[in-house]
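Hey, I was hoping to borrow your eyes for a little while. There's a protein on my desk that I can't quite get my head around. The fold is given in discrete form, as structure tokens running alongside the sequence. I'd be grateful if you could look everything over and explain what you see. Here's the protein in full, and shout if anything looks odd to you:
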Amino acid sequence: MKKCRRCSKPATLHITEIRKGEVQQLHLCEICAQKYLAQGNADEDEPSSSATVEDLEAADELACPHCGITFRQFRSQGRLGCPHDYEVFETELNQLLENIHDGTQHCGKVPQRTGEAHQDHFRLIKLRNELQVAVKEEAYEKAAALRDEIQQIESRLKPQTTI
């Protein structure tokens, strides 16, 4: 069974295009096929969906300089070759995660046996990242609220000293 070129779900649409005398095959899942067909119905002045096919071809040929695995091999095997692949294929992997999980950040559960202090440390990291984004976007009211929340958590985490 063929996999989708964009997200590696099972392909349900198989397209064969002949462009400039070359035969090119494109295999897409239902969701990616709808996006592809919607692009194909665009005006002639806009870039056609063939640009998408070319982008996919280029991504498939992208290879890791450390282990030599190509993105096409990753899509067929479902496994990366080395830790450097996360950086080499970052753009493609982010698109894949967006398609599969509707996001690129894990928002799962925290084990119940994890201590409250550990959860606070995790929350601090997340809040500090949000604070950096808020300052960068000049959302100062949000940044101030985040700063206050960070200070509250930090005060809980500081060991209580008595005189």
